[in-house]
Amino acid sequence: MAVNLKQLAELLGLSQTTVSRALNGYPEVNAETRQRVLQAVRETGYRPNRAAQRLATGKAYSIGMVMPIAPGIDSDVHFGEFLAGLAEEAVKHDFHFVLNPSAPEDEEVTFRRLAASGNVDALFLAYMRANDPRIAMLKSLSIPFVVHGRSIGESRDYPFLDIDNTSAFYDATRLLIQLGHQRIALINGPEYLAFSIRRKKGMLRALAEHGLSLDEALVQHSLMTDEHGYRSMQPFLQHAQPPTAVLCSSTVLALGAVRAINQAGLKIGEDISLIAHDDVLPMLKPENFSIPLTTTRSSLRAAGARIATRLIGGILKRGDYPEQELWRAELIVRASTGPAPQK
Known about the structure:
InterPro entries: HTH_LacI (IPR000843), LacI/GalR-like_sensor (IPR046335), Lambda_DNA-bd_dom_sf (IPR010982), Peripla_BP_I (IPR028082). The protein has 3 domains: 5-57, 434 Repressor (Amino-terminal Domain) (Orthogonal Bundle); 62-163 and 300-327, Rossmann fold (3-Layer(aba) Sandwich); 165-298, Rossmann fold (3-Layer(aba) Sandwich). It is 41% helix and 16% strand. It has helices spanning 5-12, 16-23, 31-44, 50-57, 77-92, 107-116, 134-139, 165-178, 194-209, 226-237, 251-263, 300-316, and strands at residues 62-68, 96-102, 122-125, 145-148, 160-163, 184-188, 219-221, 245-248, 273-278, 294-297, 324-327, 330-332. The chain has a 6-stranded parallel beta sheet, with helices on both faces. It has a 6-stranded mixed beta sheet with strand order 7-6-8-9-10-12, sandwiched between helices. It starts with a helix and ends in an 11-residue tail after the last strand.
């Protein structure tokens, strides 16, 4: 049977106040005592009384998020992987989630209600768009928040964690150009999302530097599923001047693109090259494709864990974290890229 606070304090030979302060991260409790308390918590299965803890500290020990419910979003494996990282870090600190589903048109109301409820100590925001109005709305609330991604066309005076999507697809496109490719296709995420806009921007920049342009007939924006990857790739291959290379915004999209390429009887890495962005999804490793994929890599799970660390650190007044972080994606060359085929 799990012990209560009084029993835990007696077991450790400490006062209940000291144990409570150790669990709540008060700086006057030294590191050795805090570690003793945490070890005893693990061994005894102690769980704090949330109601009493909230009265004592004014904290809910919860992170709030609004999950937009729309076709394709509620079953997005990418969002699930991000939440897994967030959850792994939250569990370490005995933090909870308050997850509010919301129709896109009701998001602002849902965020305001969540912030005013007192049930969360901080919020996080995802699925960033160009000129995203939710940034100003969150800044108007008296609650900490961190954004996963960045808006476009807004001042950047808000806390965020993002990957450098522009540089990632610039580097990927430049590699293809160095291999002799000139007709390069793009299978991207939804057109209104900021990461999609930046990835296309990076591609366009690399092409322009080499006097090349992007044929808009070779661009598709869609939800990031394997079926959409398949449907996007098929018309590219049937084009009068098909591409010799393709960039995919996800390994999930690439899974469908590879299926279309194989059905067309083409050899990846020889007849057509392919580069995908790898979010490090555990069930879809690029090295396990029939032809290992060249990728730009940045872990969504790691991003989720980092945002949880920043939010929880801010709530508990622990650590000193940067307000804004821009992670560089790693370009990993494998067998799916090769020289452009000779005419």
